[in-house]
Design brief:
This protein is of the alpha/beta class. It contains eight helices and eight strands, in the order βαββαβαααβαβαββα. A hairpin with a 2-residue loop joins strand 7 and strand 8. The longest helix is centred in the last third of the chain and has 16 residues.
């Protein structure tokens, strides 16, 4: 910034184990976004090493990096990032268009299966405007799952949702995690972090705390305590 060098991350070191549900927390400016972009292969670290499923990310060129992202990482964003005039099914199919080994029939079947797995088997032809916020986020999660990634990376995925929708999404995340999916979830909300198995706390670009959540809460149980609503 100007003549000043700002190091967004300083000496950050940790492992994410297969099948783990990890949350990353920190205030604004703590380095969460830079760390997220590094984990998602959107940014390369200027120093150090990032191994994703055994692959050294710093050694990859632009095209190989794009392939790695598409095959190994499923992204879920706060703003959903769905194509507005496209059906739920077509939105979920989108990452598969870059896989030349799949036929149109196989793409459709995989997308349908993923939508069914997030409880939207009856909403295949709905566009985002015909879905609630929670349902749109479920479409985004189905899209993240469709390439069978090694890691799901979620960036404030409950940030735009009410409590019921947030807990519903976290219940889904816990269910996916119980099936063996590796999840890294960036949040600033302590109640959302309580649903994960481990939390890393960032401050000023450093890991201040890396702790196992001994009293992990069940999002499904929390959901059951809330007033009933049609919108989830």
């Amino acid at each position: 910034m100007g003549s000043e060098i700002v190091r967004a991350l300083k000496g950050v070191s940790f492992d994410v184990v297969t099948g783990e549900f990890l949350t990353i927390m920190g205030s604004s400016g703590s380095g969460k976004t830079t760390l997220l972009n590094t984990l998602g292969c959107l940014d390369k670290p200027t120093d150090g090493t990032y191994l994703l499923d055994g692959v050294d990310v710093r050694k990859l060129g632009r095209n190989d990096l794009a392939k790695l992202r598409n095959n190994k990482i499923g992204f879920v964003f706060q703003a959903y990032n769905l194509l507005p005039r496209t059906s739920a099914l077509e939105n979920v199919e989108l990452p598969l268009l870059y896989n030349p080994t799949l036929s149109a029939k196989e793409r459709k079947e995989r997308a349908m299966k993923c939508l069914e797995s997030v409880g939207l088997g009856d909403r295949l032809d709905h566009t985002p405007s015909q879905l609630s916020g929670g349902q749109q986020q479920r479409v985004a999660i189905a899209r993240a799952l469709v390439n069978e990634p090694v890691m799901i990376l979620a960036d404030e995925a409950t940030g735009n949702l009410d409590s019921r929708s947030s807990y519903s999404i976290m219940a889904l995340m816990q269910e996916l995690n119980s099936q063996g999916k590796t999840i890294v979830f960036v949040t600033h909300e302590p109640d959302i972090a309580s649903f994960s198995s481990r939390t890393i706390m960032l401050r000023d670009g450093k890991v201040m705390k890396d702790s196992i959540n001994d009293n992990r809460k069940s999002a499904k149980e929390m959901l059951d305590t809330l007033p009933k609503s049609e919108d989830y």
